TrEMBL record:
<keyword id="KW-0004">4Fe-4S</keyword>
<dbReference type="Pfam" id="PF04879">
    <property type="entry name" value="Molybdop_Fe4S4"/>
</dbReference>
<dbReference type="InterPro" id="IPR006963">
    <property type="entry name" value="Mopterin_OxRdtase_4Fe-4S_dom"/>
</dbReference>
<feature type="domain" description="4Fe-4S Mo/W bis-MGD-type">
    <location>
        <begin position="16"/>
        <end position="77"/>
    </location>
</feature>
<dbReference type="InterPro" id="IPR006656">
    <property type="entry name" value="Mopterin_OxRdtase"/>
</dbReference>
<dbReference type="Pfam" id="PF01568">
    <property type="entry name" value="Molydop_binding"/>
</dbReference>
<feature type="region of interest" description="Disordered">
    <location>
        <begin position="354"/>
        <end position="376"/>
    </location>
</feature>
<protein>
    <submittedName>
        <fullName>Molybdopterin oxidoreductase family protein</fullName>
    </submittedName>
</protein>
<dbReference type="InterPro" id="IPR006657">
    <property type="entry name" value="MoPterin_dinucl-bd_dom"/>
</dbReference>
<dbReference type="InterPro" id="IPR050123">
    <property type="entry name" value="Prok_molybdopt-oxidoreductase"/>
</dbReference>
<dbReference type="InterPro" id="IPR009010">
    <property type="entry name" value="Asp_de-COase-like_dom_sf"/>
</dbReference>
<dbReference type="Pfam" id="PF00384">
    <property type="entry name" value="Molybdopterin"/>
</dbReference>
<keyword id="KW-0411">Iron-sulfur</keyword>
<feature type="compositionally biased region" description="Gly residues">
    <location>
        <begin position="354"/>
        <end position="364"/>
    </location>
</feature>
<keyword id="KW-0479">Metal-binding</keyword>
<keyword id="KW-0408">Iron</keyword>
């Protein structure tokens, strides 16, 4: 088995022509072409890379950001893992042949399940996986492992927006319209989104709004995107972090009280107005000003601008992680959707509401069964008809499909936990596919402790990420340009990923890995290793579901058709949703009354709200981009943004080292009272201060791309949104103090 070739599925292969594909990173999925390495360069083994070029496509119009341009550098990177690595008794990861690796993994699954039951094995997936891998991983968990314990990093990303979209519209597709529709807008309200750094080529779609002074950016920082409002291009609203719900209730209050409501749209297309009128009543502009810091007259001007565009031009409301990644993220997004509905936008020709999906396959990855409560086609795992349908496609009795599992934070909190009188035991053996939770999950010290308490940890990755370093078994997988598959972009459009280069000998496709493991575990259904075959099965499994892919084929995609789901067999797909109605049985959107609690008193001396987010040069946990020379040279270490006035108060100069810690001791997380006698050191972040007048004086900001003591998630907490399971990533009350330079500089990055 160890000499088995990687699956040969290429249509383009390593032919001399460039291969048309898409960027490996974010959900904009910019089109690019990969030309083979120049002749004589010696192929991947020599480190020669295919050449990346931007390709004409509606979302990026030939543009790429720095991450896209440098993405091919990682294909033949010296850090690539190219053999399975098993931890020996002395604690060292050592190469083993594939058959040894897979047999060991299967044996550990059996042992854990014999001792503790089926749910003792867990799976943690990722929104970067192709549709084929995400679909098969969901099936692998339910049928090959027989566990309900599967969830994924999309829970950290899209879950609040998804929950709010489902509640309001009956369906969750990030943008219910093509990105290019934004070109017609004269007003765009962008809440908690920094597209200028997180999706640079997207900025061109804001040109129309900027030209007329209609870009409104809501961010506690003067982000690169907020800067796009300069010179009359728009307005930057700079509220205190985590006051967006109040701000949005305030805008709705003005729309209702100042006669800006789209009466006939609301009457014909929505339900729930009365309760929303009551819920926004207490938030008159001056009260909102007191809570958020945004002046009342600025709020009035913004509401009037939105309403006049909605009436006579075109107006869009878009949200990003800045307002979504909160413990009340679902309600905050709901308030943004309510505002859009009150203005008559969703499904009209005058604009709409959308959320900007994050990961490369953040959209498709949330449709086909990686979520703990979900089956393919965006079906509910608790719905008897959905279970029957999927069981038929899988050729198993309905009862063979486990029930719902638990969301990501709860799953991670359960690692290694023994059973008690009141609660079942946690996961003892975990498979990780496409996430680096030791950097990206909230409260990473607790996560690391959980991973170390496992009986067995399997990590599939192409690099030794910080999470892979904790593994008992690392399985080396393929990178994007080495595999075939499909991705679904932020507009719900399905795209082809194509193989452009040979994979290193020794790495294997995840479909191949699942196929072999399923056989070793006597799985009751087939696990094809050919992506096209998996996609055919996904089409059948999704047929009739909300996210119906049954009409999409590799042939249609290869012929260049633009196919947005839902795409039932024979249809041309749905680029624009809601034009004829919403996905609730009565066709109406739901206005859902949400309430804000009065903000907590402002932090005391030396205390701040810590906001977290992204830098242009790094992607997520940085497992990939920290290995790209130009990117890591541009952003080598973590920096804490601090306002100069706040820094002066703390006696901190630009470039000085600071320590960031929680203002209050963390509430006892779900891990319980901890191990007796094993007092954990208080988690802190060590960073250099970067003084910037662009941030509010009561706020500090950290990017989350760095590991170790540089990890912002050292201090974030396990608190989650009760509806979506989204962690509170975006605000933590912290103390900032001067610190000594770390003895080992590496510690901080
Ligand atoms: N360069 C880069 N690009 C990426 C990624 C990456 O890691 N790096 N990741 C991709 C993924 S998975 C995602 S999800 C997207 C995320 O894309 P964005 O949502 O644009 O990214 P963030 O930087 O997380 O957050 C956006 C902004 O929210 C602001 N913010 C923080 N707290 C608050 C608050 O309480 N209220 C408001 N209104 N704003 C707040 C931050 O200051 C920040 O500027 O980016 C995708 N693109
Ligand atoms: N404080 C704070 N924390 C955050 C956020 C924040 O804004 N603030 N944002 C959150 C968000 S929106 C997200 S999306 C998460 C993301 O956080 P992570 O899930 O940690 O994201 P990545 O760094 O993309 O991790 C992907 C890992 O999988 C590997 N990989 C890439 N492609 C594949 C593949 O096809 N198969 C396999 N097996 N491995 C692959 C990569 O090498 C990398 O090690 O972080 C969240 N954490
Ligand atoms: S914007 Fe996103 S998809 Fe486009 S090149 Fe940059 S990382 Fe890649
Ligand atoms: Mo994300």
């Amino acid at each position: 088995m160890s000499s088995a070739p990687a699956p040969a599925v290429s249509t383009a292969g390593t032919a001399s022509r460039p291969t048309a594909t898409h960027c490996p990173y974010c959900a904009l999925q910019c089109a690019m072409s990969l030309a083979p390495a120049p002749a004589g360069a010696g192929g991947p083994a020599s480190g020669a890379q295919p050449e990346v070029a931007g390709r004409e496509f509606p979302t990026n119009r030939g543009g790429l950001c720095r991450k896209g341009w440098t993405s091919a550098e990682l294909l033949a990177h010296p850090d690539r893992v190219t053999e399975p690595l098993l931890r020996s008794d002395d604690g060292v990861l050592r190469p083993v042949p594939w058959d040894v690796a897979l047999e060991r993994a299967a044996a550990e699954v059996r042992t854990a399940q014999e001792r503790y039951g089926k749910d003792a094995v867990g799976v943690f997936g990722g929104g970067g996986l192709t549709n084929e891998k995400a679909y098969l991983l969901g099936k692998f968990a339910r049928l090959a492992l027989g566990t309900s314990r599967i969830d994924y990093n999309g829970r950290f990303c899209m879950s609040s927006a998804a929950a709010a979209g489902n509640r309001a519209f009956g369906i969750d597709r990030g943008l219910p319209f093509p990105v290019t529709d934004l070109g017609t807008a004269d007003t765009v309200l962008l809440l908690g989104s920094n597209v200028a750094e997180t999706m640079p080529p997207f900025v061109q779609h804001l040109a129309g709004a900027r030209a007329g002074g209609g870009l409104i950016v809501v961010d506690p920082r003067r982000s690169a995107t907020a800067e796009l409002t300069a010179d009359g291009a728009g307005t930057h609203l700079q509220p205190a972090p985590h006051t967006d719900l109040i701000l949005l209730l305030g805008l709705a209050h003005i729309v209702i009280n100042d006669g800006l409501l789209a009466h006939s749209y609301v009457a014909e297309r929505t339900a729930g107005l009365e309760a929303v009128i009551r819920s926004v009543a207490p938030w008159w502009p001056e009260r909102v000003q007191a809570a958020t810091g945004v002046p009342a007259h600025v709020l009035r001007e913004a509401a009037e601008r939105l309403a006049s565009s909605a009436r006579t031009g075109s107006c869009y409301i878009l949200t990003g992680r800045g307002i979504e990644q909160h413990a009340d993220g679902t309600d905050t997004v709901t308030a943004a959707i309510n505002l859009a509905l009150l203005l008559g936008l969703p499904g009209s020709e005058r604009g709409g509401y959308g959320t900007l999906t994050g990961q490369g396959n953040g959209q498709g990855g949330r449709e086909h069964g990686q979520k703990s409560d979900q089956l393919p086609g965006y079906r509910k795992i608790t719905d008897p008809a959905a279970r029957e349908h999927v069981a038929r496609v899988w050729g198993v009795p309905e009862a063979a499909i486990p029930g719902p599992g638990v969301p990501a934070v709860e799953l991670l909190a359960s690692l290694g936990k023994p059973a008690t009188a009141d609660a079942p035991g946690g996961v003892r053996c975990l498979f990780v596919h496409g996430a680096n939770v030791v950097v990206s999950a909230p409260d990473v010290s607790a996560v690391r402790e959980g991973l170390r308490a496992l009986d067995f940890l399997v990590v599939c990755d192409f690099f030794l990420s910080e999470t892979a370093r904790e593994a008992d078994l690392v399985l080396p997988v393929l990178q994007w340009a080495e595999e075939e598959g499909t991705m679904t972009n932020l507009e719900g459009r399905v795209l082809r990923r194509r193989r452009a280069v040979e994979a290193p000998a020794g790495a294997r496709s995840e479909l191949w890995i699942m196929n072999r493991l399923a056989a070793l575990l006597d799985a009751p259904s087939a696990f094809p290793e050919d992506p096209r075959e998996v996609f055919e099965e996904l089409r059948a499994a999704s047929s009739g579901g909300l996210a119906d892919y049954s009409g999409i084929t590799y042939e249609r995609l290869d012929a260049g058709e633009a196919l947005h789901w839902p795409c039932p067999a024979g249809s041309g797909g749905t680029p624009r949703l809601f034009t004829d109605g919403f996905a609730h049985p009565d066709g109406r959107a739901r206005l859902v009354a949400v309430r804000a609690s009065a903000p907590a008193p402002s932090a005391g001396a030396g205390a701040f709200q810590l906001a977290t987010g992204r830098l242009l040069e790094h992607y997520q946990s940085g497992a990939q981009t920290r290995r790209v020379e130009a990117l890591s040279a541009a952003q080598p270490e973590v920096r804490l943004s601090v306002h100069p006035a706040a820094a002066a108060g703390l006696g901190i100069a630009d470039g000085a080292w600071v320590r960031v810690r929680r203002e209050h001791a963390a509430p006892q997380g779900p891990r319980g009272a901890g191990t007796p006698g094993a007092a954990q050191p208080e988690p802190v972040v060590l960073a250099r201060a970067e003084l910037t007048a662009g941030i509010r004086p009561d706020t500090v900001f950290l990017p989350f791309h760095f590991p170790g003591l540089g990890a912002a998630n050292q201090v974030t907490e396990q608190r989650t949104d009760p509806i979506s399971g989204m962690p509170e990533f975006k605000t933590t009350r912290v103390l900032v103090e001067p610190a000594e330079a770390p003895l080992d500089r590496q510690e901080a990055s």
